[in-house]
Write a structure and sequence with these properties.
By secondary structure, this protein is an alpha+beta fold. The chain has a single domain, classed as HIT-like (HIT family, subunit A), CATH 3.30.428. It is built from three helices and five strands, in the order αβββαβαβ. It has a five-stranded antiparallel β-sheet, with helices on one face. The structure holds guanosine-5'-monophosphate. Guanosine-5'-monophosphate (5GP) binds at residues 5, 16, 28-32, 40, 86, 92-95.
Length: 113
């Protein structure tokens, strides 16, 4: 099966500013930042979207969220940050490889657009 865009970034076949990686997840700066700090953290495994995650992905999803919080701390987002997962067309998903947006460095508004 063809690799997803984010798998190619994880495998360093495409350039990205990687801020953290381990054997399960990779975090890199978004190419079109929506906040002063905008990082995506993705599982190396190409889970398509959160709505298609399987019971087998339980530990991986926990790891992904714990690492998102760790990356946010490392990036100095002590004042707060927002984690976003877009799912499907109405959710604003553009890349079909699960990713958590880490947004910070400015005051977020609510409700989101
Ligand atoms: P989604 O809308 O699917 O939740 O978010 C996809 C995100 O991926 C967008 O914020 C978009 O800017 C980012 N993105 C798309 N292509 C690339 C790329 O080639 N490199 C990086 N670093 N980010 C990308």
């Amino acid at each position: 099966m063809e690799k997803t865009l984010f798998q190619r970034i994880c495998d360093q076949e495409l350039p990205a500013q990687i801020v953290f990686q381990d054997d399960q997840v990779v975090a890199f700066r978004d190419i079109n930042p929506q906040a002063p700090t905008h990082v995506l953290i993705v599982p190396r495994k190409p889970v398509v979207r959160i709505g298609e995650a399987q019971p087998d992905d339980h530990a991986l999803l926990g790891h992904l969220l714990l690492k998102a919080a760790e990356v946010a701390r490392t990036l100095g987002l002590e004042a707060g940050y927002r984690l976003v997962i877009n799912n499907g067309p109405d959710g604003g998903e553009a890349v079909p490889h699960l990713h958590v947006h880490i947004l910070g460095g400015r005051r977020m508004t609510w409700p989101p657009g």
